[in-house]
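Please predict the structure of the following assembly.
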Amino acid sequence: MEQDFKQSIDRALNNANLTGALGKFSEAYKINRAKAYEGIDFEELRSTIATVKGYAASHLEELTRQFKEKAEAKGAKVFCTKDPAQVREYILKVARDAGVKSIVKSKSMATEEIHLNAYLEKAGIEVGETDLGEWIIQLAGQTPSHMVMPAIHMTKEEVSDLFSKEIDERLSSDIPRLVKVARNELRPKFLKADMGISGGNIACAETGSIVLVTNEGNARLVTSLPKIHIALVGIEKLVAHFSDIAPILKALPRSATAQLLTSYVSIITGPTPNTDGSMKDLHIILMDNRRSEMAADPIFKEAMQCIRCASCLNVCPIFRLVGGHVFGKVYTGGIGTILTAWYDELKSSEDIQGLCIQCGACKDVCPAKIDIPALIMEIRRRLVQKQGVPMLQKSIYAVVNNRRLFHGMLRAASIAGKPFSKGTKFIRHLPMFLADLTDGRSLPAIAVKPFRDVFKTIDQPKNLKEKAVFYGGCLIDFAYPEMGEALVKILNKAGIEVLFPEGQTCCGAPARYNGAYEVAAQNAEDNIQALLAEKADYVVSACPTCTVALDHEFIATFESLDRKKYLPQARELAAKTIDFSTLVKKLVDEGRLSFKEGQHLGKITYHDSCHLKRTLHADQPPRQLLQKAGYELSEMFECDICCGMGGSYSLKLPEISAPILQRKLKNIKDTGAPIVAMDCPGCVMQIRGGMDQLAGGAPVRVQHTVELLAAQLKS
Amino acid sequence: MFEQFKTRAEGVSAEVHRFTTEAEALAFLVGFLRTEGVADAPGQYAVFADCPFLQGIDRQQLKEVGGLWLEVTRERAAGAKVGISQMDWALADTGTLVQDASAVDKRLVSSLPIIHVALIATSGLRPDMPTWLSEARPDTAGYLAMITGPSRTADIERVLTIGVHGPERLVIVFVDQMGGTN
């Protein structure tokens, strides 16, 4: 990672104003968004939007042509171009020809994208942003940190300093007063401006209309007072039909700011009269800037569905810590990473793609149904394809894939770390450059015997009618064999014999999440051969990330690489794969398994692991089972927000992972429950390690659901 | 539908009134302008965009209000405290007013003054946006404007603040028996 990128992360993390403002906002957003969507079938709505926008993305040429024809028939001048330089030149020419001295702008990310202001100002034209947030950052000489709320990173004190300087009067930080100042300062600019520049939230081909969505009312003034109006619209804003406006306007304000509708929506179709009776000189620029290339890409085409609501930023556990400026470009957050990779270049996303922890929170709320984490993974894959896997990573994969060697090395490291583990189950401190790994979180000591050796010593009952192949995964195999033992105990009780094929290896998730798809594909092939060699009714795993690999990602990896050979077996494996809690829930429901009766085990809280909840959608079975066993469930705040582990993420960006963990620990503690359960050994490693280093208060036991349930089986 | 509209509109800080006749609405309007201190002085004007409501009423009552202009210019609108216009539709599920605002004076009176008074025939109520979109005629109305509550921002520290570039008050006046089409 680039040094200055790491530094910008550090700066952001140490900016208490920023993390405070974003943290508060993200908490309120979640509640308000849910309220705004009350009574609406979100899945249906976003399917409609995905269809409408997906159609437009695959008919760009046709819709561009139709839009131009319709808008020109109404008297607008329409300019279509692929090239941002031509956009700038066109606008400057219109301005020069009309003797324009000053311009007012309403919010437009497309103009930010092509750095229009600087270009026009260099040509001697005064350009005034009028959206309050945009004006603030214009005065501060910054770029927007958020698509919808450009100045969310600034405090009222900073704003008051900026305004004080601008109007040469000492202002207090009273927000309504500051807003009044903006109104009074900008009003004369509106009235004297010769040209108004806006963006466009929707461009409707059927009618040649553009739709503008604002809250402040500045777009109404920008499009009404000056005699010239130029709207700069990215071609991803095109839709085919006038009726397509409805679903977008239903979702955009709800997802962006949790409003049912913004204060103002304007639908402009051709020029209308100016205040002096002349007709408006209306120009609409449809800008491509690599959007049609994106639309032609079979995978990234999906990103064309974006309606720019920024909800992916608002729910992102990383964005709320670091804000938008670390992204370094105009578009920020999850979707911003993808847009930057295209509108700028793939290379520009090299560092920022690494910010994504792949928790999937954004995918859940995207009103355009874009699988943002999957597209970021694809960026990783393409970066690796272009630049190769870094040497260090390569050698790590070589070790990880050799199970005996991997365990041996981990064990050796663990013994070497003995002085640091002080006879407990943790490695609390590591020497020198490895110290970051144990900063705020202890690492588990490596088991003396891996599960693969423990397994051979387990005496399973004979003649059980069903068989399940157990896929262990790295953590259970090497750090937490007791979880594997618990799983065997439970399944045996239900009449299932457990098999543990020796040939199983890493699930490939670490490689895949780092873009090394070739390595992941090799892992997939090895595992398929090992796991399907045994005839079994189920393939069960107690790690959701591994389960997702077996259930979804082997297939996806093969498809990405166009490797067809093992696809049928990958599908066969996927069909048999089931996560531990879902299987046990099924066994309990079938009456094959029961818990001790009348148990009152006290309060417990449950942490949702990202893959279990958002990919496998299995967040309920563990809760139901724990309650059935006799626990009283007490939900924590933000139970389904990532713990900050994210596989190797916590090793690559420990400075981000650590505060996410601290937040999780606080939320767990606040419930007052003495135990927290979860279904992922990775989360156990992260949270147990964090609890170990947490000062003060009674320690909270951190357990995998499998161990808690195994202890409550009816004998 | 009216009740739903009222709840939604009040939920976004609009004020909602309802009268049976145009005469009652006019009486309210005149009283309102007086209360707000509308006068023939910059910053205190009222501007009234041409509309069917103006055709059906006794204009003498309006003429008695000093500083009220029926001929709207951008200077007068910029110096007005109150702007009055008639809207065409009201969308119940979001509390939204909709207007064919192709005539620029309609936009001036609803965007420059501090207070916007919006007259609307109760018959203009529609359940939601899709219903309205199916009736809308963008081919003949070059500027369709939707208004939902007063101008607002949350750009400083996410604190909701009313009245940025547009009006800080939106006063909606429903009239059950309104003649003419806008």
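The radius of gyration of chain A is 28 Å. Residues 399 and 409 of chain A are 9 Å apart (CA to CA).
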